[in-house]
Design a protein that fits this description.
Layout (H helix, E strand, L loop, with lengths): L5 H30 L12 E3 L2 E5 L4 E12 L2 E13 L2 E17 L6 E12 L4 E12 L2 E11 L4 E5 L7 E3 L8
Antiparallel strand pairs: 1-3, 2-3, 3-4, 4-5, 5-6, 6-7, 7-8, 8-9, 8-10
Length: about 180
């Protein structure tokens, strides 16, 4: 059994943090122009939810849908085994989708296509329009892919932050910019 001194542990943690910072910077600088912006009008659209069962808990301010659940809000669509909708002051603030995997897609502004994502858990923050993808997270847009254990995607700003699992790294495939002919 190998024991590490506290100094060795601090140095190791510092190196891990440096790698995360460099990876986050690379992801943000490489992906931001690629990912684009989601349709701004989607956030103003009603949220439609369909599932096999639905439970409402007014005290906890939650709605729980189970069984082949689908959410549509404008061009945004989430499909999952279970979806929990949390609300405050009669407004949806967070939607948590779990599945094997849960799936998300949304049309982007202009002719930038769609963004697709999947993970074991997808948390959609409606007010900040951000997605947290957790557990075998995957993000695809215009042929560029990002895989990691956790991905945070700021839809409006087009920013992405990804973290690796202990056993596998963050993986990215960037497509070259298409040149006009």
């Amino acid at each position: 059994m190998m024991f590490l001194s506290s100094r060795s542990l601090r140095n190791r943690q510092r190196r891990i943090n440096d790698v995360r910072a460099v990876a986050s910077f690379a992801i943000l600088t490489c992906c931001s122009p690629v990912l684009g912006w989601a349709l701004s009008k989607d956030a103003d659209q009603p949220i439609h939810i369909v599932g096999k069962t639905a439970e409402m808990d007014r005290q906890a301010k939650k709605l729980v849908y189970r069984g082949n659940v689908r959410i549509d809000q404008g061009t945004l669509r989430v499909v999952a085994d279970t979806i929990v909708v949390e609300y405050e002051a009669d407004r949806v603030v967070r939607v948590t989708a779990t599945g094997a995997p849960a799936r998300y897609q949304q049309q982007l502004e202009g002719d930038k296509g769609h963004v697709h994502a999947n993970a074991r858990e997808i948390v959609y923050h409606t007010q900040s329009e951000a997605l947290d993808l957790k557990g075998k997270a995957y993000l695809l847009q215009r042929g560029s892919e990002l895989k990691g254990e956790v991905i945070r995607y700021d839809i409006v700003a087009g920013k992405v932050d990804a973290r690796a699992a202990n056993t596998s790294p963050v993986r990215m495939i960037l497509q070259p910019a298409r040149q006009p002919r």
